[in-house]
Each structure stands twice: as C-alpha cells, then as structure tokens.
Amino acid sequence: MSLSKPNASPATLTKNRTEPCPISGICVTCIDGCPGPCEVAKSAIRGSEIIYPAPFGVITVGSQKTYPVDLSHFNIMGTTVGAVGIETDSDKAIFPNVNLETRIGKGKGLRLKVPWFTCALGSTRIAKDNWKELAIGAAISGTMQVIGENVCGMDVNSEINNGKVAHSPELEWRVKTFNEWREEGYGGIAVQSNIEDTRLGVLEYAISDLEVDAVELKWGQGAKDIGGEVKIKDLAKAQLLKRRGYIVLPDPEDPDIIEAFKKRHFGEFERHSRVGMVTREDFVNRVKELRSLGAKYVFLKTGAYRPADVARAVKFSSVAGIDLLTIDGAGGGTGMSPWRMMNEWGVPSVEIWSLTYQYTDRLAKKGEHVPSLAFAGGITMEDHIFKALALGAPYVKAVGMARSPLTAAMVSKNVGQRIVEQKLPVYYARYGNTFEAIFVEAGRLRSRFKEKSEDLPAGAMGLYTYNQRLTQGLKQLMCGARKFAIQHITRDDIAALTPEAERISGIKYIMDSDKEEVEKILS
C-alpha cells in the first residue's frame, strides 16, 4: 500500500479523472482530450504555481502522507491504585485537582498555566489576519505565543537604517497585543529570527525597543527543509522585498517580468528566505550575544532534519545553555510550503521525538546541561499532548501547536461575525443567537474582564474555549493515570500497540508492560 497520495490533492486543487496508478499517481488511462485536472497536467499549464498549496493566504495545510507510526499507535495506561503528586484520597485525587502548570528554562523559568503553546506564526497573511485573536487567546490562557520569521522584513512600514530595522509597526503591534492581555506571572511572547531577520537585527530591536524577554533562533521547521516562503500580489512590495535582501521570483525588477505582471500574465511573486549554515561556534556565540543584550530566555526551533542534525541541536543547545529546544516533526502543518516536499521529506514526528529523547537522555546521564524540550508536529488534542509528554519524559515540558490554535481562532472569529449578522449555521443556531449562548466560556470571560471584555474578539474567546477543553481533557487523562502534575508523567504511562512502535520509541509493547510487577502480584 502506498503511503503517499501522488499526483492529485485538494491542497493543490488537483484530482485524477480515473483510479490512479499506485506508484506514479497518473490515471490508469491518460486520454487525449482530457482537460487535465491532475497535478502533472496542471503543472504543464501553471508551472511552479502548482508546487504550493492553494489558495495562499487563507489556508493552513497538513501532510496527507500516512506514516508507518503515529501517536495513535500508543495507548495511555490507567491504573486502579495510588496517586502521584497528591494524597491517595478519593476525595482529593479528583481530576479538577490535577496541576497542569509547567516551567520553561533555567531557574524559576517561564511559567505556563498549561503545557502547550502556539508555535511561531510569522509573515504569512493568514497569521497576520488572525494575530489579534491568536495573541489575546494565548495571553488570557496563560501560555506562550511565538512571533515567527520575517515579520519586520515583510512590514512595508518598517524603518530600516543602514541595513538594520529601527522601527516596525507590525512587530510592535504583535508584541503589544499580547502584552495588553497577558496574565500577570504567566505566559510570554517570544520573537523568532531566521537568516534575513538576523541580518536586519530583528532580535536586537525586539529586545531593546520592545522589551521582549524571550527570543528564538530558527534552524527550520517540520513542514519543509528550506526557508520561509510567501506569495506577493503587489509589484511594489515585491520590489521592496528584493531590495531588503529576500529572494523574489520571478525577478520583480526585470522589465519583461514587470510588463507581464501588468498584463496579468501571472498574478503573484514568490518571496523566499535563505537556508542557514549552522556551526557550533557561531551558535554558541550568538546565544551569548543575545544574553548580553538582555534576553532572559533564548530558544531554538529546529525541523525534521536527519538524525545527525537532531544530535547537533541537542548538543549545541546543551553547550550554549539555552532555555528551550523545540523539535518539529514532519507531517505537521504549514501556511505555505512546497506540497510534495511537505509530504516527502524529513523524519516523522514519533521517530524524531524518539531520537531526541535518546540523545537528550544520553547527555543528562553524563551530567551535561539539558534544556527544556518541546515537541511539535501534528499535535491537536489532549491525548496527543499526554502521549508527547510521556514520549519525552522527563525532558519535555510542553508541546507546540500551530494549525489547531489557528483553526480555533479562525472558526470562532467567523462564528462571531455570523452572530452579529444573525446568519448562524443551524448546527450553532440550536444553542441560541447570542455570544453567551453560543460560546460556552463567554459568560465567565465577561465576568473576568468586565468592561474590557467588550474588546475581546470572538476568535480569542474561541481559542480560550478550545484551550479549556484541552485543559479538562488532559486533566481527566492524567487523573486516570494517577499523575496529578505534569512533572510526574513518565514513559511507562503509555504503551506501544505494535512491535514497530516499540522498536522506534523504546516504549514497551502493551503485552510486555508491567511484566515485573505482574510477576510479583501473581507470586
């Protein structure tokens, strides 16, 4: 059975006319006269446009590949005895008493009310258009939001002097939006930096002018193994971005290209970022430099690269003494990535998380510094969170998500608009026709924020409500496993359902779980 979906996908707005060949994906009978809805045919008409999911700017996309092992190949283990982290008393060991707080980094660290945060959302239009909802939703949930790459460079109103950003209204607005709603003592906003951001001095600006505490260096992401990408529909902006040092295709300064664009022979330019050239010395020195500039927390985000690069990320992070290392596996999500690349490159989530655990555990046993870890790549629900924490225990302190918070924010934003317009779909209208009737947390949020609640966007309300669902769901799973705080989750709180899942992860096969304890009980 093929693991991939070749030659046709809803992501590229392509489809086959007949049942496809399993290897090539081309229709079994390719007939002269077909207008060509498949990917090969559409590529013959539109070329490189078909490399990317469409329509750009209003979608997020997840891989269609069926990987041999995923989180569904593990089950959470419950028990009838004991309670870890609370008194063994049935009146006290109840799921509302589970403590989900976690800390990231050294010392007191960055406190999160819940063990998940929103991964970097950067210069894509869909992130910009939903930022208010995302930032406020994360802030009032007591968790962290990371601002992704290229925000300053893409901001047409950025002031850049001598090649360095002096002011960016867009980045300033993003930071301010979160901080205005941040709950005292919890959560935080972090700013990410890639090659172009580093050249522009984005982190220096964020630390000094915007008083950002946490910064994140970026090696990559799970969705692709090249730099960040977006599409540009404005010629003047495409030319500006080229002058700022980005790779822009086709060349927006070529007279023939300009003429073709004006005649609407094509409608958008591609803006690409560069790939980094990682060395241990440069990485360690950059971390030291950021600390000296005033950064309280320094993170690293890396993608689904080969095992040697995972080892580099773990070791370099240890040597540099960073606070958080986020490992993003293949098969997660994207705002814009080459579609075939997203499906066919990289180490899948379970495999790369398992490798990360092995390498980190090896360093820890030698007494070397181990940063807080976060796993990312396709996580959306409370069982995913529990399993990811268990796979990386005790080193994983949180998980990163992006598509699911964005989905929660977008859908609830749109539902809020439907409430205002009184055009609710029937599956929501059955609850009522007011915010309080539709959004189950609305009343509590109104009471919590009082007059300020009038400024609370529906999308933020929805993201908070989604987080509340995850909170209760995770507490229930942890209570059943008799683990009443995040730090008590261990690798034997899950079991592998297949020998292959056991071999990859090191998690015991379910038929072999508790063997020693079973022997004691039966003897």
Fold topology:
Layout: H1 39-46, E1 61-62, E2 74-76, E3 102-104, E4 110-112, E5 116-121, H2 125-129, H3 131-140, E6 144-147, H4 151-154, E7 159-161, E8 164-167, H5 169-181, E9 188-193, H6 195-200, H7 202-208, E10 214-218, E11 229-232, H8 235-243, E12 247-249, H9 255-262, E13 269-272, H10 280-293, E14 297-302, H11 307-320, E15 324-328, E16 333-334, H12 339-344, H13 349-365, E17 372-376, H14 382-391, E18 396-401, H15 403-421, H16 426-429, H17 435-438, H18 442-449, H19 458-480, E19 494-496, H20 499-505, H21 515-522
Parallel strand pairs: 5-6, 5-18, 6-9, 9-10, 10-14, 14-15, 15-17, 17-18
Antiparallel strand pairs: 1-16, 2-19, 3-4, 7-8, 11-13, 12-13
Helix pairs in contact: 3-5, 3-19, 10-11, 11-13, 14-19, 15-19
Kindly describe this structure.
This protein folds into two domains: 52-228 and 277-523, TIM Barrel (Alpha-Beta Barrel); 229-272, no CATH class. It has helices at 39-46, 125-129, 131-140, 151-154, 169-181, 195-200, 202-208, 235-243, 255-262, 280-293, 307-320, 339-344, 349-365, 382-391, 403-421, 426-429, 435-438, 442-449, 458-480, 499-505, 515-522, and strands at residues 61-62, 74-76, 102-104, 110-112, 116-121, 144-147, 159-161, 164-167, 188-193, 214-218, 229-232, 247-249, 269-272, 297-302, 324-328, 333-334, 372-376, 396-401, 494-496. The chain is α/β, with parallel strands linked by helices. It has an eight-stranded parallel barrel with strand order 5-6-9-10-14-15-17-18, surrounded by eight helices. A three-stranded antiparallel β-sheet has the order 11-13-12, with helices on one face. The mean pLDDT is 95.
